[in-house]
Amino acid sequence: MKYIFFFLAFCSILKTNAQNEAWNITTTENNEYTGIAIANGRIGMLTSPDPFQIQHVVLNNVYDVDPELKVSQIVHGMNFGNLDVFIDGEQITAKNISNWKQNMNMKEAAFTTSFSFKNKAEISYTIYALRNVPYTGYIDININAKKKIDVKVTGKIETPKEFNKPTHKYEVLKDMETTMPILQSVAETPFGKHTVSTSATFIWHAINSSRENERPELIEKVASDYTNTLTFNKTVTPDQPLAFAWTAAECTTQDFNDPKSESERMVIYNLLNTKDVLLAQHQKLWDSLWEGDIVIEGDLKSQQDVRLALYHLYAFGRGDSDLSIAPMGLSLQTPYNGHIFWDTELWMFPPLLIFNQDIARSLVNYRSDRLTPAMERAKNYGYDGAMFPWESDDTGEEATPPFALTGPFEHHITADIAIAFWNYYRVTQNEKWLADKGYPLLKEVADFWVSRSERNADGSYSINNVVGANEYAANIDDNAFTNGAAITALRYAGLAAAKLNLEPNPAWENVANNIVIHKFEDGTTKENKTYSGAIIKQADVNLLSFPLNIVNDKEDILKDLKYYEPKLSKKGPAMGKSIFAVLYARAGDVDKAYSLYKESYEPNQQKPFGALSEVATSNFSYFATGAGGMLQTVLFGFGGLDFTEEGIVQKNPVLPKQWKSLTIKGVGPDKKTYRIDR
């Protein structure tokens, strides 16, 4: 009997280890390093291989405008994530440590670095972008001495050199018997649009356990015009590890009338709460997010890859923000200035709508809040309704650089937004939202497409002079995806009107029924009116099969797939292969679908964590658009899920032979679970 007990215990340990591996990505190699974004929908911190360093801080929806380039850029804020740590007078660097290891815990949204410093100490620290206090970061540090050591720690607020009028201070605020040491820096963004304030302090966990007498003396020093520092010294012995945190809040005039005072209040809130309380609140919110999850048995790498993709979409969004998600989320400013594209509505939005209707609502509300400037833009270009910008920022006006043809001509985004709006209603059945926000936008979009379409002599309609999803073909007529998206948006506006018992514009149905989709003689869909077989940047025609369901006959779907798959550029973004994978899975060719699924993201993974870049030859991460694409293959291809007038339904799921099972949890408002077994 005891052997059976030990065997069962051993199996339980193996199962627990497997579950932990599915939530954690660990590395001990840093020769090639692309960081991971630690983010909470308001701020993002990009990790670094160097001890006690982060690469930068990104501030969501905080844009500054370069008067020379004449485009807005999302702000890299003050960097509060770098500390200088000395042991016995020697600064800890990448060159004098050993046993370096980093771990990304996706379940807890926690990033831990650990290492040994000579024969003197074992050190670890964990970085959090607190979900519960979303303008703050929290770095929890533990130093375990192997012998008696003298430790010196300097926390820093580093203001970018491009910022203007930096000022720094340190003061100890007092209320009753409570003392609150606060380091603070304030400056203007490079081109003066916003004031940024960052406050920071050390937290000794023992203080909140009534041991305030153990607080080390703090020394403040302005190291330069752009660096503000706060230092303490402490003798540490093997029997008493040093456990403390460095926390900071970064606020701007984009979100606060008085960012200076608010950043202080947030730091004080973190200072006077225990670590256990703060991190429990953070974890509770992440546990809620992870109610929407994908579980893959039999393929650990796919499991980790899928979870990392989901983690980033959750980390880059917030249900309480009414903000959208840029292609690189909160990981990087370049290469697209933090602007919002069709990437959100077509690629990231569908997986989020499956799992988290709160974040999905923020994404659509971001567009609704910018309906007025979209209507102004349509008027400025001679059209009715609303014409959304190809690149959007906080203003809702066009933010594309003037030299880029996509700004004036890539109009399909206006239809993409409408499609996301109707899908949000389909899933939530929220008629109040539809009446207040959904239909007003759908109506204006439909009116735009009526005015944007041109009637031909035979009564058909064309949409001329556009840039389609395939951006290699500029200023062409009757782009397949643009036309298909317009048809879909017009029909959805009619459905929305009917749902609200309103009278639709009769022109919507007439134009939708008569917009041209050109074909080759054998019935293959033409990418545009004059297309003759050129290489394409990404999926365009095939989007008419998924997600638009305009080309829906199996033979026609396969005909388009076989024609366009060889024409997909190797230099383009990988999302096209995600669409091909969905369609092959739905057609029942699961081996082909799985192969394309892997090709859609694995070449773009960067060492050591598998962060996605837009193309295989770059390391700009994290490419949230690519994450959305590969997740759609799992959800809408293998998982068989679909958006319908009845909400989310499952049709014909298929399971790759490499997987033992696929479980999709937390689907839709009812949090349904779908499981596919071999």
Radius of gyration: 27 Å
User: How many DSSP E strands?
Assistant: 27
Portion of residues in beta strands equals 25-35%
Average of pLDDT: 95
Helical stretch tally: 16
**Helical fraction:** 25-40%
Which consecutive residue ranges, at least 5 long each, have pLDDT under 50?
Answer: 6-14, 208-213
CATH architecture of the domain at 29-288: Distorted Sandwich
Main beta sheet: 9 strands, antiparallel
Broad CATH class of the domain at 29-288: Mainly Beta
User: CATH fold name of the domain at 29-288, please?
Assistant: Beta-galactosidase, Chain A, domain 5
CATH homologous superfamily caption of the domain at 29-288: Glycoside hydrolase, family 65, N-terminal domain
Q: Strand order within the widest sheet?
A: 1-8-9-10-11-18-15-14-13
Question: Which helices and strands, and how do they pair?
Answer:
Layout: H1 2-23, E1 24-27, E2 37-39, E3 43-47, E4 54-66, E5 71-76, E6 83-87, E7 90-91, E8 97-105, E9 110-117, E10 121-129, E11 136-145, E12 149-158, E13 164-175, E14 178-188, E15 195-204, E16 218-224, E17 227-236, E18 242-252, H2 259-271, H3 275-289, E19 293-297, H4 300-316, H5 342-355, H6 357-368, H7 371-380, H8 406-409, H9 412-428, H10 431-452, E20 454-455, E21 461-462, H11 480-499, H12 506-514, H13 554-564, H14 575-586, H15 590-599, E22 605-606, E23 611-612, H16 624-638, E24 641-644, E25 647-650, E26 661-667, E27 672-677
Antiparallel strand pairs: 1-8, 2-3, 3-4, 4-5, 6-7, 6-12, 8-9, 9-10, 10-11, 11-18, 12-17, 13-14, 14-15, 15-18, 16-17, 19-26, 20-21, 22-23, 24-25, 26-27
Helix pairs in contact: 1-4, 4-16, 5-6, 5-9, 5-16, 6-9, 9-10, 9-11, 10-11, 11-12, 14-15, 14-16, 15-16
InterPro entries: 6-hairpin_glycosidase_sf (IPR008928), 6hp_glycosidase-like_sf (IPR012341), GH65_N (IPR037018), Glyco_hydro_65_M (IPR005195), Glyco_hydro_65_N (IPR005196)
Domain Glycoside hydrolase family 65 N-terminal: 36-239
Pfam families: Glyco_hydro_65m, Glyco_hydro_65N
